[in-house]
Amino acid sequence: MQNKKTIIVHDTFLYKWWWERLIIMMAKALKADIASGFFSHWSFDLRYEWFEWKMIPISSEVFKKWLRHIKLKFSFLFNTKFLKDYDTIIFSWDCISAVRNAKKDAKKIFYCHTPPRYLYDLRELYLKKVPFLLRPFFNLASIFFRKMYERDIKKMDLILTNSINTKNRIKEYLWLDSIIVYPPVILDRFKYISQGNYYLSFARLAWAKRVDTIVKAFQNMPDKKLKIIHWINDPQKEEIIELSKWYKNIEVIPSPNDEQFYNYIWNCIATIYIPVNEDFWMSPVESMSAGKPCIWVNEGWLKESIINWKTWILIPEWASVDNLIQAIQTLTPEKALQMKSDCEARAKDFSYENFEKEINNIVNWIK
What we know:
- This protein is an alpha/beta fold.
- Helix content is 37%, strand content 15%.
- The protein has helices spanning 18-30, 65-78, 123-129, 135-153, 164-174, 211-219, 237-244, 258-266, 283-289, 321-330, 333-338, 340-347, 352-365; strands at 6-10, 33-36, 55-57, 88-92, 107-112, 158-161, 179-180, 198-201, 225-230, 250-254, 271-273, 294-297, 312-315.
């Protein structure tokens, strides 16, 4: 009997974010090939991550956001004829136009991290960032891409997602049901080493992540140290660097390598993450795995994973500077150490072993 072939199609391996980690772990669990718009040198080295199956680049590296978006749309439409060789295809992020090249009887599964936020819940926020004269073009492109997305997602046999929050968003905007499969953490990689003298932010520097609010809080607390990790093409990078440059207690760290990245988490006091209605983010789970509590805003997916005042400290959803200052002053190094055991215990619920069993059961179950 011929072996069934499985492939995961992911839009880009652009940087070292949690969704790239998820795709690597999913592919290893399913022994699947990976196709991607491109495999950037800024992202994970898949062979270093012990990935041993086929890697298929669909296009070439492009870092300018809107150019990349358009180029990859065409690449997934026209450069994915090879999908006809696969019996199970799992799509991830903004690549589902490639579903048109799947054979009719293939299993088609979409792991929906979130409906594209520039088309749905954060559309107005994105529109405000577009120059006034270009807004009509943004509106026309939004209508076109939204129709295209909604037509392609209906071709899926199954939709998976990462949280109740995103499940509700898919239902609200697309009227479709989905199954939650929480992304995993390699627990041994995120571990407690020591407690340094700094708080850590490693959210992407983008307006919806509100890193500027974090910087403004530490501007008012010169006795407390903040380290901010960012990547080369983060859209709010220049603004955050400008906000931070005159403050000796705030350090902005560009594109650390893997070992440096882990060390910053292993040795911080706590992590801070205050996004606008976040669909899912792995960093707080990685933080908990390292025995580090997280300051988070009281909205979005985190309500599914928190044990407030045991593994997290919550601030109100409007996330003012004063709210954050109060939380940081409350989460002292001594308090953070008291929360260490609860953090580590809660992180075990997101282990790779649990994920591996669950994803195999789901993929093998669907007809």
